[in-house]
Design brief:
Layout: H1 2-6, E1 8-9, H2 11-19, E2 25-28, H3 43-46, H4 53-59, H5 67-82, E3 95-99, H6 102-110, H7 112-115, E4 123-126, E5 138-149, E6 155-161, E7 167-172, E8 176-185, E9 194-201, H8 212-217, E10 226-230, E11 234-239
Antiparallel strand pairs: 1-10, 2-5, 3-7, 4-11, 5-8, 6-7, 6-11, 8-9, 9-10
Pfam families: BURP
Protein name: BURP domain-containing protein
InterPro entries: BURP, BURP_dom
Length: about 240
């Protein structure tokens, strides 16, 4: 939780770096706990194994008191309560879906629910360099900031959730800006550049006042943007079609 909180950025600093000052140092904190590597279920199994407490105990054999089981139950809460069956959520304009198979993920990305009308061949994935996603904190100086998608260009973010098999929450949140940031490690012995991906939510009206973004940058809903890095287990998808809604 602390790592997530510290990884929220100030969009003013990011935008300023993009325009004239590609020199600010950023610290990207490693996420804890480490997310285990898991595979998607085959489509035929994913269709018959629901995201339920019963599946956790009877199929995956998780003990209810284990930390893994408790974290998995949070995933059930997200997928069964936050995400509605019609793809809406409590957040105005957000579209979301949980997927438990590779085929399901492909179906979601091909549909207009998250990315709007598009040709599936024109979807582009943007991810953070794996070297920034594991094990230790990273400090680097910004070399370049690239705007990958603005508020008018549909893009979706898929987050890996804790569960015995791979589960992804994919969602589209209106009024977002997607950035890729090239950084030079502060370690003088390491000359290799790395890329981090950040998302800025430009309209925070209707957000929970206790959201980590507001606690970190000392603002309130509707009075500031919420930006954060997309680290381990997160993938951004951009609709590159000329017609975007």
């Amino acid at each position: 939780m602390a790592a997530l909180e510290r990884n929220f950025m100030d969009v003013a600093e990011l935008s300023r770096s993009r325009r004239v000052e590609p020199s600010k140092y950023y610290v990207i904190y490693s996420e804890i706990p480490e997310v285990p590597v898991r595979s998607f279920l085959p489509a035929e199994l994913a269709e018959v194994i629901p995201l339920t407490n019963k599946s956790l105990s009877e199929i995956f054999k998780l003990h209810p008191s284990s930390l893994f089981a408790k974290n998995s139950m949070k995933t059930l809460q997200i997928c069964n309560e936050r995400v509605h069956k019609d793809g809406t959520t409590v957040m105005d304009g957000e579209a979301a879906v949980c997927t438990t198979s590779l085929e399901g993920l492909q179906t979601v990305l091909k549909s207009p629910l998250l990315l709007g009308p598009h040709n599936a061949a024109n979807i582009r994935a943007v991810v953070t360099d794996p070297r920034l996603q594991c094990c230790s904190d990273f400090t680097g100086k910004i070399v370049e900031v690239r705007l990958e998608a603005d508020e008018q260009q549909r893009h979706a973010i898929c987050h890996s959730l804790m569960y015995p098999s791979a589960v992804y929450l994919c969602h589209f949140v209106p009024q977002g800006r997607l950035y890729s940031v090239t950084l030079k490690p502060s370690n003088a012995d390491d000359e290799e550049l790395v890329q981090a991906v950040g998302i800025c939510h430009m309209d925070t009206r209707g957000w929970d006042p206790l959201h980590l973004a507001f606690l970190n940058v000392h603002t309130t809903p509707g009075h500031g943007e919420a930006c954060h890095w997309l680290l381990k287990g997160s993938i951004a998808f951009v609709n590159n079609d000329a017609y975007q809604k």
